[in-house]
């Protein structure tokens, strides 16, 4: 098995909810900040959305591959990823991350 290495470039300016940042992924920039609903800038995605999305991305690709490997007739996998944060604002942490897949496909019989 080969070893793989990945990297991203990120930048951030400002403090806490007042700050904003951006990550460059394959030449495309995605901005992020705290949501305006909690007093942040509300520009781009939130940190939490990016983390939940990353989990969903990994899950969807892995699930699709496993279904195909088992010979199941999958044509598409959709993912709904949700997370809950508790302890805001002083001790924020995720209390739950739920990944709900929808699998499309089947035999044309």
Automatic annotation (TrEMBL):
Gene3D superfamilies: 3.30.300.20. InterPro entries: KH_dom-like_a/b, OsmC/Ohrsf. This is OsmC-like protein. It comes from Alicyclobacillus mengziensis.
